Amino acid sequence: xxxxxxxxxxxxxxxxxxxxxxxxxxxxxxxxxxxxxxxxxxxxxxxxxxxxxxxxxxxxxxxxxxxxxxxxxxxxxxxxxxxxxxxxxxxxxxxxxxxxxxxxxxxxxxxxxxxxxxxxxxxxxxxxxxxxxxxxxxxxxxxxxxxxxxxxxxxxxxxxxx
Length: 162
Hints:
The chain has 162 residues and is of the alpha+beta class.
């Protein structure tokens, strides 16, 4: 049984070192618990707290729309259409979408006025997008290729159990 108090916010010098700790914690969760919803809830919490994001959560693909799953942060939109906003674009284009300034992104779905940048990363099951990780930040230009690579690793770990 995985104990939540096993997972502490990493005290690391660099962003990559923090991700390394978080990825180990996420692997531990995935390999020691079979329930997908429980795992996604803990993964959202670990990423949210470990990287100090403003909103961190998952959307499940259901037909032609995304349905809100486990998340951390303020209340969020429950359903997002394919091609709608950053998440819907990641779903429709089947790729990671990174937006450095949400004010410049046509069709951005705003959770609040404080969010400044966003990233959405799809996960695949049987060759099709089945889940999207969405993360918002209160900082402009918060997401880099380092974030993209590490968050894609998170989604590859999740793909192993989808």
